[in-house]
Amino acid sequence: MKTKLIAMLFFMLLTNSAADAVTLKIATLSPDGSMWMQKMREGAKEVAEKTANRVEIKYYPGGVMGDDKAVLRKIRIGQLQGGAVVAGSLSQFFPDVQIYCLPMKFQSFEEIDAVREQMDPLIISGLEKAGFIIFGIAEGGFAYIMSANVPIRTVSDLRKNKVWIPDNDGVALEAVKVFEITPIPLSIADVRAGLQTGLINTVTTPPIGAVALQWHTQVKYLTDIPFLYIYAVLTVDKKAFETIPPGDRNTVREILGRVFREIDRQNREDNIKALETLRNQGIEFVKPSQDAMKEWHEKTGSLPKVLVETGRLSQEMINILEKNIETYRSGSK
């Protein structure tokens, strides 16, 4: 009888633990087998171990749950609890998340590092107030204009092409307007097909993205200007996160935060390698003249005012960005 009682208690303990376990379903466009997925799976394994399986993370890679827009919709209805998404996809909840995406704003990786040290916490705080727990910011890197048909050296060259922008990206939309371009919005998942069919012939993307998503197989030219800075976040719905036992929440934050910092560092190295991969595979790098660069800067220089007027960014956040850039540049001279 005593043995049966012990066995019953043990069974009840196991079944109660299983019932109390929290599963976070997280989707991403990152391909399975990529560095992102390898590190995120390592983090999920560690979370399970450190919480005695009270918290489990299940990933859906490769866009099987749809693009970022679809992932966010599924988070809202509870089908998913989180996503590793491009920061711009969260702009409807916190517009200032796109502050780093101003075209031709940064001059070097060192400059963006100095700015991010001061401003990443502001972005994370803003998103958490909007209902998203953020485990980290990972660099997508500097994005370059890449074209399929002709080299793009001038603003006039750009106007003659079929230019892609991410679907529902307000900053990108206003940015192309200052260049007097009518863009073609597509989800990231549809870009390669768009390039193959000729629906679009010009994209702006970091080298690592072009290689990972195979867009580089459809382009011939790269405009050698670090045009804008792109990053992604690993996020979980706040209400879903709060279903995790209180004692385990810090463990999850610590592990996933560390994993995303590792991804952030690795992405920079991979982007530098990917840029060389593009060169080695025969993509022609074209450099605008000084006169052409002057026009590029004139056009992009008018964008912050437009974004404030249209409610895409706050003047306060732009002022903070400008102050941090000025502080870095004055100190680096």
CATH H-level superfamily title: Bacterial extracellular solute-binding protein, family 7
Please tell me the overall pLDDT: 91
Oligomer: single chain
In the CATH scheme, what's the topology name?
D-Maltodextrin-Binding Protein, domain 2
Share of residues in helices: 40-55%
**Low-pLDDT runs:** 5-19
The biggest beta sheet, please? 7 strands, mixed
Short note summarizing the structure:
The protein is of the alpha/beta class and 333 residues long. Helices cover 50% and strands 19% of the residues.
Structure characterization notes:
The model is unreliable at 5-19 (pLDDT under 50). The protein is α/β, with parallel strands linked by helices. It is 50% helix and 19% strand. The protein contains 13 helices and 9 strands. The strands form 2 sheets. Strands 1, 2, 3, 4, 7, 8 and 9 form a 7-stranded mixed β-sheet that branches. A two-stranded parallel ribbon has the order 5-6. The radius of gyration is 22 Å and the shape is globular. The chain has one domain (2-332): 3-Layer(aba) Sandwich (D-Maltodextrin-Binding Protein, domain 2), CATH 3.40.190.
